[in-house]
Amino acid sequence: MWKRIFAAALTGLVGTLGVSTAASAHAALLETSPEDGAALDAAPETVTFTFNEDLDPDNSQVGASGPDGDLDLAEPSVDGNTLTQPMTYTAPGEYTVSYRVLSEDGHNVSGTIAFEAESIPEALRADGGEDTEPTAEQSETAEGPDGEASPSEESASDSEGGNGMKNGLLALLGVVVVVAIVIAFVKIVGGRKNDGGGDSGSEDSP
Ligand SMILES: [Cu+2]
């Protein structure tokens, strides 16, 4: 009940925000390459962000991090509405790339995408990232974080929480039913015993 009311209120709020966002001239991210959440055989040479309006080259920033922490990257370049970040990598694994750009209306807009790279092309390896040992470690860590997967996992566990509550109530109901049956059974058996014993009066009517 409250959940529904809350959900409805939230939907309304998000709708309102969506409308006001569309009304102002915020820069909106149209697409990225690679796509957010992509699982790639080989790490891409560049990451690009395409927006719905031209970008200010002086106020467009990109940061990235991977299995070994933050990456030391070259400056991104801006071409019209596209922000391009040349990439280097340390090891196969999960990478996140964040952008921060200045909208034409003066507001900063930022966001993050994540992707997984199974291998790093030789030319894209950052200095010092060529050891094979860290690579093995990293492939383990890469399975652990599942960066962008966690929000959906969280929401999944949210609904599981709801189910858990339902299951709990059902279990409680089951226990109550079982207890009621046991009580009824004991009463019946007790009644019969008492009938047989001819001693019923003392227990049934105290
Ligand atoms: Cu704005």
Automatic annotation (TrEMBL):
InterPro entries: CopC/D, CopC_dom, Cu-Rt/internalin_Ig-like, Ig_E-set. Residues 147-160 have a biased composition (Low complexity). It holds the Pfam family CopC. The chain crosses the membrane at residues 168-186. Its main location: other. Keywords: Copper, Membrane, Metal-binding, Signal, Transmembrane, Transmembrane helix. It is found in: Cell envelope. Residues 1-27 form the signal peptide. Residues 26-116 form the CopC domain. SUPFAM superfamilies: E set domains. Residues 79-88 have a biased composition (Polar residues). Residues 52-89, 126-162 are annotated as: Disordered. This is Copper resistance protein CopC.
